[in-house]
C-alpha cells in the first residue's frame, strides 16, 4: 500500500516526470549509438575477412618473391642457418627447424613471406653443447667480429631472454639477420596440474636468475620439480626458458618423443635441413590449422629499422659474403 502511494506521488511530481523523460531520451540516443557501432563492427569484420581472403590467395596461390631489405635479410638468415647446420654436423649435435621456419618450409617452401629470422629447436643436452662450441667456432672463423651470441639476455627491468640468440650486427647495433635456438626437455611422465606447475616453475626460474642463481643450479631445481631427465624419455616439453607457457607466445604442450625422433629432413628455400619426424603433428601442436593464414600476424621491428638504414645493400652484401665464404670452407 505504501509503495503504491509513493508511486502515485512520484507520477504527479513534475521533477520526477521531467527526469523520467530525460532518461528515456538518453536511452534512445544510446540505443542509436549502439546500433551504429554494431553496424561499424560488422563492416570492419567484413573488410577484415576480405583482406584475410586476399592474403590467403596471394600467399598460398601465387609465387611471390621477396625484394629489398626483406630479400637481403632472408639471404643472411639462411647463411646463419647454414652456419648452425655446419657446426652441428661437425660436433654431432641434433637440431630441427622450429616454429615459423618449419611452418614456412611446409606452407611456403621456405620463409614465411613476412618473417625475418630463423628458429631452431634442440634437446637440452644438445642446446648446452651447442652454446659451448658455437662460441669456439666463431672465434676460430673470425665470425665473432660480425656475429653476436647471447643467452640470458637482460633487456628491461627484470626481463630476460634465456634461449640462445645469434645475430649478425654492425658496430651501430643494426641487426641484419637473426637465429633463435630454443631448448626442449625430456619429461619422464606427466602428472596432475602439470601446466600450473610449469607456470609456477617458470616464475621461480626467472626470479632465481635475478637473485643470482647460476644456470646450472636453476636448471637442476627445474628438472627436479618438473620430473625431467637428460636421457631420452617418452615425452618432450618446451624448456621453461623458452617461449611456451600460458603467458608465453605459444601454449604449453606435452609432445610425444616418437613423433619428433628420429629426425627427418625437409627442404627450406632449396636446401634440406632436419625437421621433426612428424611435422604435421608438431605444427598442429603449435598452430592448430597451420595451413591457414592467420587473421592476426606477428612481426618483428628490425625490418622496418633496416629499411631506413643508409648503405643497407652494401653492408648486407658484405656480411652475406663473409658468412658464405666461411660456410663454403667448412
Shape: globular
**Number of DSSP helical runs:** 11
In the predicted model, the low-confidence regions spanning at least 5 consecutive residues are none
N to C succession of SSEs: HHHEHEHEEEEEHHEEEHEEHHH
Radius of gyration: 27 Å
What structural category characterises the helix and strand content?
alpha+beta
Overall mean pLDDT score? Answer: 89
How can the largest sheet be summarized?
A: 8 strands, mixed
Number of β-strand runs: 12
User: How much helical structure, as a percent, in the residues?
Assistant: 40-55%
Measured distance between first and last alpha carbons: 98 Å
What is the percentage of strand-forming residues? 15-25%
Walk me through the structure.
This protein is globular. A hairpin with a 2-residue loop joins strand 11 (264-268) and strand 12 (271-275). The termini are far apart. The protein is of the alpha+beta class. Strands 1, 2, 3, 6, 7, 8, 9 and 10 form an 8-stranded mixed beta sheet that branches. The model has no long low-confidence stretch (mean pLDDT 89). The chain has helices at residues 2-11, 14-61, 68-90, 99-107, 124-141, 194-210, 215-226, 257-260, 279-287, 302-307, 312-328; strands spanning 96-97, 118-123, 147-150, 153-156, 159-161, 164-169, 175-187, 228-229, 235-238, 254-256, 264-268, 271-275.
Amino acid at each position: 500500500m505504501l509503495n503504491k502511494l509513493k508511486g502515485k506521488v512520484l507520477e504527479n511530481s513534475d521533477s520526477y516526470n521531467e527526469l523520467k523523460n530525460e532518461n528515456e531520451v538518453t536511452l534512445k540516443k544510446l540505443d542509436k549509438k549502439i546500433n551504429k557501432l554494431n553496424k561499424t563492427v560488422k563492416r570492419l569484420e567484413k573488410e577484415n575477412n576480405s583482406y584475410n581472403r586476399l592474403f590467403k590467395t596471394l600467399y598460398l596461390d601465387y609465387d611471390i618473391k621477396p625484394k629489398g631489405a626483406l630479400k637481403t635479410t632472408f639471404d643472411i638468415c639462411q647463411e646463419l642457418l647454414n652456419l648452425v647446420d655446419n657446426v652441428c654436423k661437425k660436433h654431432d649435435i641434433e637440431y630441427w627447424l622450429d616454429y615459423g621456419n618449419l611452418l614456412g618450409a611446409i606452407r611456403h617452401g621456405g620463409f614465411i613471406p613476412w618473417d625475418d629470422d630463423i628458429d631452431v629447436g634442440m634437446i637440452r643436452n644438445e642446446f648446452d653443447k651447442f652454446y659451448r662450441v658455437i662460441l669456439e667456432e666463431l672465434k676460430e672463423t673470425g665470425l665473432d667480429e660480425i656475429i653476436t651470441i647471447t643467452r640470458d639476455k637482460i633487456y628491461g627491468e627484470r626481463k630476460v631472454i634465456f634461449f640462445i640468440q645469434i645475430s649478425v650486427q654492425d658496430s651501430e647495433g643494426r641487426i641484419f639477420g637473426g637465429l633463435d635456438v630454443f631448448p626442449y626437455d625430456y619429461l619422464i611422465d606427466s602428472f596432475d596440474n602439470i601446466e600450473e606447475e610449469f607456470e609456477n616453475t617458470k616464475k621461480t626460474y626467472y626470479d632465481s636468475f635475478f637473485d643470482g642463481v647460476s644456470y646450472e643450479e636453476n636448471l637442476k631445481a627445474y628438472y627436479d620439480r618438473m620430473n625431467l631427465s637428460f636421457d631420452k624419455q617418452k615425452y618432450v616439453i618446451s624448456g621453461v626458458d623458452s617461449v611456451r607457457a600460458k603467458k608465453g607466445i605459444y601454449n604449453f604442450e606435452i609432445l610425444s618423443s616418437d613423433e619428433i625422433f628420429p629426425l627427418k629432413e625437409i627442404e627450406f628455400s632449396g636446401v634440406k635441413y632436419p625437421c621433426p619426424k612428424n611435422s604435421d603433428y608438431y605444427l598442429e601442436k603449435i598452430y592448430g590449422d597451420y595451413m591457414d593464414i592467420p587473421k592476426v600476424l606477428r612481426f618483428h621491428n628490425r625490418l622496418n629499422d633496416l629499411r631506413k638504414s643508409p648503405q643497407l645493400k652494401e653492408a648486407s652484401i658484405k656480411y652475406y659474403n663473409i658468412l658464405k665464404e666461411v660456410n663454403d670452407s667448412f
